[in-house]
Amino acid sequence: MDNEITIAYVGLGSNLGDRAGNLLLAVRGLMEASFVVHKLSRIYETEPVGVEGHGNFLNMVAEIHLSNITPSQMMARMLRIEYLLGRKHKSLSKPRTVDLDLLLFGNYQCETEFLTLPHPKLHLRRFVLTPLSEIAPHAVHPVLQKEIQELLKNVADNSAVHRWSPNPHTEGEPLDAKVFLNSLVQETN
């Protein structure tokens, strides 16, 4: 049995209801799906890009360490988390309680009806590149062969991406998964 660790990156977003609460539930869902959530970016408030109506998104990226799972199996688990958290349509142009995107799965590349890796729009979206660059600036896009920080520096997308905080007067460092979960649980009590 192959126990080699693969590092994957998942984009998380929400623009309906309790956006921060939805992100918390999505992170919990990832952990309950037996994914090792190793690192989380800060949360960013972002303008919707190609999404009809409603307000801004909250977005972040999680670094996941895995073994003995295929990208398709990971994607299936992520779709189940979305469904359990109230996402009814996978339409790209609709608002969503939670959106989980598999951005990178090691250096794996594929293009099927079910999954494309790396994510086909990863290098075009500031709202993904900003949090990804925060936690993995030197990760290399397996097709473009460029570091994430370089892709962010040269992205043509000029949509607004700002660090979000429940208390706008607080500046913090990138959070590990436990700190993030504890801080959001305390805020909801």
Residue fraction in strands: 15-25%
Order of helices and strands: EHEEEHEEEHHEH
Q: Describe the biggest sheet?
A: 6 strands, antiparallel
Number of domains: 1
Radius of gyration: 16 Å
The CATH homology group name: 7,8-Dihydro-6-hydroxymethylpterin-pyrophosphokinase HPPK
**Secondary structure tally, helices:** 5
CATH topology: Alpha-Beta Plaits
Contiguous low-pLDDT stretches (5 residues minimum) are none
Shape assignment? globular
Q: Which structural class is indicated by helix and strand composition?
A: alpha+beta
Distance from first to last alpha carbon? 43 Å
- For the record, the CATH architecture stands as 2-Layer Sandwich
CATH level 1 class label: Alpha Beta
Overall mean confidence score, pLDDT? 88
Beta strand count: 8
User: Helical proportion?
Assistant: 25-40%
